[in-house]
Amino acid sequence: MQLSIVVPTYNEAPNIAELVRRVAAAVANLPGDVDAEILFVDDSTDATPAAVREAAATAALPVRLIHREKPEGGLGGAVLEGLAAARSDVCLVMDGDLQHPPEEIPALWRRFSAGDVDVVIASRYAGGGTAHGLADRTRVLVSKASTSVTRAMFPIRLRDVTDPMTGFFLIDRRSVDQALLRPRGFKILLEILARRPMRVAEVPFDFADRHAGESKASVRQGLHFLAQLTALRFGKMSLFAVIGGLGAVANVAIVWALTQLGVDYIIAAIVAAEATIIGNFLLQERFVFDDMRENASGVWLRFAKSFTFNNAEALVRIPIVALMVSSGHISAVVATAITLVLAFFVRFLFHSLVVYAPRKPGVEPSRARRILEDIDEEVMQPGEL
Question: What values do phi and psi take at 255, rounded to 5?
Answer without folding.
Answer: -60, -45
